[in-house]
Amino acid sequence: MQTTLSQAGSPAIAASASSALGHARWPLTAAILLAVLALAWFVTVRQSVLFVIGIGMGGLLAGARFGFTTGWRRLIEARDASGVFAQIVLLAVAAAISIPLLAKFPGDLAAALGPPSISLLIGAFVFGITMQIADGCGSGTLYKAGLGIPLNMGVLPLFALGSFLGSVHLHGWLSLGAVAPVSLVRDWGAGGALAATFAGLAVFGLAAWVWSRKGGAAAPALWNRKLLLAGIGLALLAVANLVVAGQPWGVVYGFGLWAAKVATAAGVFDPAANAFWGQAGNLRTLDQSVFLDVTSITNIGIMAGALWIAARKPSSGKPLTGRQWAAVLVAGFLLGYSSRLAFGCNVGAMVSGISTGSLHGWIWVVLAFAGSLIGVRLRRRLGV
Amino acid sequence: MTASRTSAVLLFWAVLIVFFAWDWTHASPVNHRKEPAILAIGSGQAPSGGHCSAF
After folding, report:
1. Do B52 and A112 lie within an 8 Å CB cutoff?
2. Neighbours of A78 (CB within 10 A)
3. In this complex, do B50 and A294 lie within 8 Å of one another by their Cβ atoms?
4. How many CB pairs lie under 8 A apart between chains A and B?
């Protein structure tokens, strides 16, 4: 059985929809501007600025179809390294600015430091598998949901539920074995951290180049201008996020927070009795509006930015069978759960971890890519 | 875009907006006296927000 939710059926319908949505762009622009002003007036100016940063992120992700998941899949399946090279440039630009700032302002700015642990190994590996099946990582799910792609709109609530439950169980997973987070900036200074980061990225780039050249003369070009520019833009916005919020760009904490609020209000969860949510900072965040939460506000901005793009450039997606939907939704739940075990997704662990000198970001990439090698095969078998 | 897909998009955003409105009415009021600096950098304030790497 195929659902009719998924796709603009024909070019004619899509063209008609494009025209109709084009008319929605001005009201949408007005609504977004109103939201920016309302946040500045009723919440805080900082949160309003972060919302604008999120809109920029969503616009770039959706406008360029900058997918971390797709980039990896294209490298694995088609030996097309252009997406991965754009990601490496993103990481290099973000690190080149963030690491010196973190060294100069250690009291004002924080790195994304997760602990190397059994939890990280398992979480990143499972995340790598499931992001291919659910066709999106943290940022990918957000911007594709904002674009109105049914698969990702369906995945989002389960991602949030998984993220919440992962955080609830996090301390149990950490008891399996963990060491303290390793900060390259703290241990080696800005110069050493930058040198190590660039060397690591060069190794990744070389490995991707070697793999892509195995395709022979027909191998796709290494550089895609659109993806490259989007990667640089995202790096600058990630730095802006750090400078404004004092902490790096993140996605999954916000998802878990939303589900935690619902569970708490429903009386099925007592945050004070939980090792993670019972911490003073998390209890305070639970008590406040989500509009005051840094990751939530950029998440909302990303969806709004993608929606704005969708008004001009409607997206497509193929219809899914009931079995495929079930597989995708289970993957979406595991995506959220594993992202908390791994201390972030492609954004919180990879982009923010690596660009702020956290060892856990490097471990995350290796394990998540290994998981993606399996994930692309499962995806093919499921026909998603 | 088909009508069913447009409906799905509208439903998605409606659920989100209802959630945000519910949250706004049930959360503690914003204390504007404690508003953070627009830029954290150079503010002298330690970051206190939640992050995915937190444990």
Report:
1. yes
2. 14
3. yes
4. 177
pLDDT tens digits along A139-188: 999 999 999 999 999 999 999 999 999 999 999 999 999 999 999 999 99
Question: Which residues, 6 or more positions from A340, have their beta carbon under 8 angstroms from its beta carbon?
Answer: A123, A162, A163, A166, A167, A170, A252, A256, B52
State pTM to two decimals. Answer: 0.92
Number of structural domains in chain B: 1
Q: What is the ipTM of this complex?
A: 0.96
Which chain A residue lies closest to B20 (C-alpha atoms)? A290
Ordered alpha helix ranges (H), A217-358? 225-245, 252-265, 280-287, 294-310, 322-341, 352-355
Instruction: Determine the Cα–Cα distance for residues A270 and A267; give it in Å rounded to an integer.
Output: 7
Chain B partners of A252 at a C-beta cutoff of 8 Å? 52
Domain ranges of chain A: 11-382
Q: Decide if pLDDT at A4 tops 60.
A: no
Q: Which pLDDT tens digit goes with each residue over A283-321?
A: 999 999 999 999 999 999 999 999 999 987 766 667 889
Do the domain assignments include residue B17? yes
Nearest CB to B30 within list A49, A258, A289: A289
Quote the DSSP letter at residue A183.
B
